[in-house]
Amino acid sequence: MIKANWTSMSGFLLMGFSDDPKFQIVHAVLFLGIYLLALSGNLLIISIITLDHRLHSPMYYFLKYLSFLDLCFISVTVPQSIANSLTNNGYISFGQCIFQVFFFIALASSEVAILTVMSYDRYVAICQPLHYEVIMNPSACRRAVVAVWVAGGISGLLHTAINFSIPLCGDRVIYQFFCDIPQMLKLSCSNDFINEIAVAAFTTSTAFVCLISIVLSYTRIFSAVLKIPSAEGRSKVFSTCLPHLFVVTFFLLAAGFEFLRPPSDFPSTMDLMFSIFYTVIPPTLNPIIYSLRNEAMKAALRKVLSKEEFAQRKMYLKAIFKL
Prior knowledge:
It comes from Echinops telfairi. Pfam families: 7tm_4. It is a multi-pass membrane protein. This is Olfactory receptor. Residues 41-290 form the G-protein coupled receptors family 1 profile domain. By secondary structure, the protein is mainly α. The chain has a single domain, classed as Rhopdopsin 7-helix transmembrane proteins (Up-down Bundle), CATH 1.20.1070. 76% of the residues lie in helices and 2% in strands. A 3-stranded mixed β-sheet has the order 2-1-3. α1 (21-51) crosses α11 (295-305), α2 packs antiparallel against α10 (281-293) and α3 (94-127) packs antiparallel against α8 (231-260).
């Protein structure tokens, strides 16, 4: 990357993974492959759940929104990084950086919230099955999703407003492949970043409360599952709960480690690689985890891809266009 002539601009320089054009091409190709995999996987889950009426239950309703969040989450950072590598130019404008910070924080917060709601849904389904339809009724599910979006939006607005109100000094170089708040705070030339730390502490506390709620839900779930006499019944419950638990653990541990540790002045390649664990890997793995471990999802996929179903969809579309 070339720093000349960009420092007079109002944007930032994302250092990314390497200055070598060959490595940048490799990085772009790898990120493009991962992005297409995440895009196709999440779109497939959204399509399957939408098309198969048997999957119109609260669990799959929330899973569809998780896939939509994943799709948006990975789209905030990866396409920009691919474009920067292909053009050998790490410059990102001030407006683009604001866009990244807002949507990155908003979507990450929304993902934590939806994972918490999903754990509560599993708790009610397994531990209070007789009251499940009453508690998790369609209206309650819609309100939960609205609350998830509102919580994410508020978190994104707070972080963005405070982070970009801090005066910056020196070269605007960010040692990441996206506008990372911990790295941006090092560019501050005043003590105003204490406000951002306060907001980050509030967000972390909220995430910790979500984690405690998830742990309590699964403690009760596994306690109830161990009392099920049927091995087939236990296996069915574990097949729906373990993938969700893995996703929650992986996402929260990776994000928590990255945001709670003090940022180094010059992050190593390992630091940059670790950031992939919470920005790129979860949205890519989630569709694979849920589809491979869930028999209902696999059955629905086989149905959607079957010749009979395809012929019915084709006839239905023809009838629509004739109208």
